[in-house]
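Standup notes
- DV: blocked on the single-chain target, sequence here:
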Amino acid sequence: MSVVWPVTATLPLPEPMPGLEARFEPLVPGLLDAVVAVEQRAYSHPWSRGNFADALAVGYQAQCLMAGDDDTLIGYFIAMKGVDEVHLLNITVAPEFQRQGWAVLMLDALALWARGQGAEWLWLEVRLSNVRAQQVYLRRGFNRVGVRRGYYPAGRGEREDAVVMSLKV
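- DV (later): unblocked, structure below
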C-alpha cells in the first residue's frame, strides 16, 4: 500500500522576532502550570499535567525556551534518550509565538544535545494533518520513514495517523 503525503510545497521559515532574546532553561516542576496552559492552548488533544510530571520523574530531556525578564514561555520540548537515538516526544511553541522560527531553534538545540549524547538518530511522530510541522521537520533535514496508523486521538472515538520521521544527527 502506498502512502500519499499531504506535504508538497515548501513553505518559508521566518526568523524569530527581532529584538526578543530567548534562553533555554530546564523544565522544572515550578514551570508545569505555564507549560500545561500553553499545551492546552496549542492542541486539541494536549498532554496532561501528569504526562509532563511523569516525563520529569523519569529524567527525560525537558527544556523550556524563555524570553524576557518576566520569563515568558515561548515553547518547550521533551525528548527521551535511547541507546543510540533520541525520540522527540513533544515540541510546542506557544500560539502567540508560532510562525516566528522558534520551533527551528528548539529542533537545532535538541539535535545538538542528541549528538552530544552519542545519539545517531533523532526520531519523532507528527500528525498526518499537521502539514506546517512536517514542512519544518523536512526543512531541518528529517526524512519521512513510515506511518503509524491510528496513533493520535482525533475526537469522537476517531484516530489519526502519524507520520514517522527521522534525522541522522
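- Follow-up: The chain has a mean pLDDT of 90.
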